[in-house]
């Protein structure tokens, strides 16, 4: 219940017409949660803890090896709703890197806004239909990428909450399946 309320509060912020920095987005979402659940507390301490948690998160076991295999065959970009420095530090903490890093902070829009995906298309220098976007949010990743003509895969890892997936959505369970999908698409 709390996790779902948090997800909805954050998605509401992503969908807002005006852009606010990631930290302010968290402030707004925490404020909404405090009100909804009748809580009080130090908003800045909550935000600091959330950001510290982003930096502590570890990538899934297969991520580094699959990305290393894929980067030999295709250019890799990350499109993220995180602020640039926070994302770069989280990637560094996991020993991960990408050819291009595109953030909402840079674009001043959150996914699923078309402009953040269009920036990825420009950076990669490929037609949209030759780009595959993989993400864990149907609304932010699949809808956003599809709106600009990119292919998309929804990653739904086992043990994570699973929202209903609209019919026709391509779903994978891990990055190994993404690698296999990419390789099959070349056959």
Explain how this protein is built.
Helix content is 53%, strand content 10%. It has two domains: 2-56, no CATH class; 63-185, HAD superfamily/HAD-like (Rossmann fold, 3-Layer(aba) Sandwich). It has helices spanning 2-15, 22-37, 43-56, 63-71, 84-93, 104-107, 114-124, 138-147, 175-185; strands at residues 77-80, 100-103, 132-135, 151-155, 171-172. It is mainly alpha-helical and 187 residues long.
Biggest β-sheet description:
3 strands, parallel
Structural class, please? Answer: mainly alpha
Classified in CATH, the superfamily of the largest domain is HAD superfamily/HAD-like
What is the C-level CATH assignment of the largest domain?
A: Alpha Beta
CATH architecture of the largest domain: 3-Layer(aba) Sandwich
Q: Can you tell me the number of structural domains?
A: 2
Q: What portion of residues is helical?
A: 40-55%
Report the mean per-residue pLDDT as an integer. 94
CATH topology of the largest domain: Rossmann fold
Low-confidence stretches are none
């Amino acid at each position: 219940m709390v996790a779902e309320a948090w997800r909805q509060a954050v998605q509401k912020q992503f969908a807002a017409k005006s852009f606010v920095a990631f930290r302010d987005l968290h402030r707004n979402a925490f404020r909404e949660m405090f009100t909804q659940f009748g809580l009080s507390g130090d908003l800045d301490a909550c935000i600091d803890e959330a950001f510290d948690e982003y930096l502590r998160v570890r990538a899934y076991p297969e991520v580094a090896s699959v990305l290393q295999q894929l980067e030999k065959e295709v250019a890799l970009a990350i499109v993220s709703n995180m602020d640039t420095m926070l994302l770069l530090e989280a990637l560094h903490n996991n020993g991960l890197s990408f050819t291009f890093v595109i953030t909402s902070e840079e674009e001043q829009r959150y996914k699923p806004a078309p402009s953040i995906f269009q920036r990825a298309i420009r950076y990669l220098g490929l037609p949209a239909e030759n780009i595959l976007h993989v993400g864990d949010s149907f609304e932010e990743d699949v809808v956003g990428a599809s709106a600009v003509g990119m292919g998309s895969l929804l990653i739904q890892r086992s043990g994570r909450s699973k929202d209903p997936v609209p019919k026709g959505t391509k779903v994978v369970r891990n990055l190994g399946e993404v690698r296999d999908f990419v390789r099959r698409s070349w056959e």
